[in-house]
From TrEMBL:
Residues 437-513 form the AMP-binding enzyme C-terminal domain. PANTHER family: LONG-CHAIN-FATTY-ACID--COA LIGASE, SURFACTIN SYNTHASE SUBUNIT 1. This is AMP-binding protein. Signal peptide: none annotated.
Length: 525
């Protein structure tokens, strides 16, 4: 299945080292469900439901049989758009069990994104709720199906039981083949889908568990949208399930909702993006209304955590902080739980695996010895190419992944993230492709030209500013008009521009290209 393979000598090496073990996600659940020790333990809970490993395994078998009866075949791509609830885990593992390929959409995605994803993946089915948080997902799924020919089945995640059928044997997936498609944070109109294999992803999950101390006693709270790579695998819900621990899924990451579950389920660990970590910290500093004393580790990642915030998290929440710098394409760095407190609070950690290879280069690809540069990497769980050959520029000629992140290595061996090259805005962990937003803005008749840049923001880290040259300078479009236009074009809410600045011309670089750098400097100044 169209996965850019690792060079054979590297693949052999990863196998010989025991990093790739030939296990599939389905093997993992079966061995937990069928084990008399773990079978009766709680695997997954949300506000309304709880399932043991044995129940989960059984329900997954019935649902898988139902999906097969619908016509879903091995290697078919199934687009999931499921909020944080037990049914997410049931659906993902049922798709694995029929040897089909989950594609991880987010509940916040809207028509433009889902059409792009479904089309790129050639999805045959969409599994989503009828409605969620006042939004009609059924109508959205129907709109996608009307535009993407491959989509034949719309499955209602609130009524999975209606599909349940007598379990059948679906055979076993090849662990070295494509397991699922994850989404790249900075995707444009044509999304970059990330092909991950059972072997590579499960290695990253097991290794993450070792570093993060995940055991059968861990209760992991998925506070962020669970389809994100971070709560999914670093070590996330898959880490907890692979260790025989418990996954608790919060409908919302806000303290008022998430902490109720923390108290009830005695949650030990969770992962947050910096703005949420700030909200949790400030709420706890004012006095928590729930007993959150079971928490022992809070991870922060997805965007740069300000050092000042990092220092407050541990004391306020009574936890050990762990910084996580990761990417759905692969490489994940962690501060170690026993690193000196200064390293934990001021760095983004180091790679999880000795087999991760890193190099820091300048804009011409030449090695940088001291000081910051662009991070490139290869390793046992970092992809060699996107699905269907998209985004080739993101890979160096020798197959290393060019992360686009500007980093510096400190004397302790930890990385400090200094920023990013390119045109991606990191809005508190949610990434916005400037190019995608610019394309949408250009479609507005009142916009003659547009450039989107990141502006520093005390809460989100960065927010978006759209520089616009108006078609009619006497009547430039307002922020409200532009936001409505982008929303109507079917983009997720987090991609709507935070501010608009109308200008007469854009500053240029020496070679006549518009200079984003100068635009950022104008805004900062
Ligand atoms: C600065 N920038 C960071 C950090 C990610 C674990 C954790 C996060 C992700 C993730 C993930 C950062 N400081 N601590 O997949 O498994 C920015 C970088 C990176 C991009 C990847 C995981 N942690 N970033 O955020 O695929 O720019 O994955 O290249 O969504 O987020 O985004 P994404």
């Amino acid at each position: 299945m169209d996965v850019s393979p690792w060079p054979p000598e590297l693949a052999d090496h990863y196998r010989a080292q025991g990093l790739w073990r030939g296990e599939t996600f389905d093997d993992m659940l079966r061995s937990r469900g069928g084990d008399p020790a773990t079978g009766p333990r709680i695997a997954v809970v949300d506000a309304a439901r709880r399932l043991t490993y044995a129940d989960l395994d059984d329900r997954v078998s019935r649902l898988a049989a139902g999906l097969a009866a619908l016509g879903i075949r091995p290697d078919d791509r199934v687009l999931l758009q499921i909020p944080n609830q037990v049914a997410f885990v049931e659906a993902v593992f049922a798709v694995f069990r029929v040897r089909a390929i989950p594609v991880f959409g987010l509940p916040a995605h809207r028509e433009a994104e889902l059409v792009g994803i479904a089309r790129s993946a050639c999805a045959v089915a969409i599994i989503s709720p009828r409605a969620h948080e006042g939004f009609d997902h059924r109508a959205l799924a129907e709109a996608v199906a009307a535009q993407v020919d491959s989509v034949e089945h719309l499955v209602d995640v609130d009524d999975l039981e209606s599909l349940f059928a007598e379990p059948v044997d679906h055979g076993r997936a090849d662990p070295s083949e494509l397991a699922f498609l994850q989404l790249s944070g900075g995707s444009t109109g044509v999304p970059k889908l990330i092909p991950r294999t059972h072997d590579d992803y499960l290695y990253s999950v097991r290794r993450s568990n070792e570093i993060c101390g995940v055991t059968a006693d861990t209760v992991y709270l998925a506070a962020l949208p669970v389809a994100h790579n971070f709560p999914m695998s670093s070590p996330g819900i898959l880490g907890a399930l692979s260790a025989g621990g418990t996954v608790a899924l919060a409908a919302s990451p806000t303290p008022s909702v998430a902490w109720e579950l923390v108290e009830r389920e005695r949650v030990t660990m969770t992962g947050l993006v910096p703005p949420l970590a700030r909200l949790w910290t400030e709420t706890a500093e004012r006095g928590a209304a729930f007993d959150i004393s079971s928490l022992d580790t809070i991870q922060v990642g997805g965007a740069r955590c300000p050092d000042e915030l990092a220092r407050r998290i541990g004391p306020a929440l009574g936890v050990t902080l762990q910084q996580v710098f990761g990417m759905a394409e692969g490489l994940v760095c962690y501060t170690r739980l026993d690193d000196p407190i200064d390293e934990i609070c001021t760095t983004q950690g180091r790679p999880m695996s000795d087999a991760d290879q890193l190099r820091v280069v300048d804009e011409h690809g030449e090695p940088v010895d001291v000081g910051p540069g662009f991070l490139e990497t290869q390793g046992p769980y970092t992809i060699r190419g996107y699905w269907a050959g998209a985004g080739k520029d993101s890979f160096a000629a020798d197959g290393w992944y060019r992360t686009g992140d500007v980093v510096e290595l400190n004397e302790y061996g930890n990385l400090v993230v200094r920023g990013r090259g390119g045109d991606r805005v990191n809005r508190g962990g949610e990434k916005v492709s400037a190019e995608q937003l610019e394309e949408q803005l250009l479609a507005h008749p009142g916009v003659w030209d547009a450039i989107v840049v990141a502006v520093p923001d005390p809460y989100l880290g960065e927010r978006t500013c759209a520089y616009v040259i108006a078609t009619d300078p006497a009547e430039p479009p307002s922020l409200a008009v532009i936001r409505r236009f982008v929303r109507d074009a079917g983009l997720a809410e987090w991609k709507l521009p935070d501010s608009v600045k109308v200008v007469e011309e854009f500053p240029e670089t020496g070679v006549g290209k518009v200079s984003r750098k100068k635009l950022r400097a104008i805004l900062a100044g």
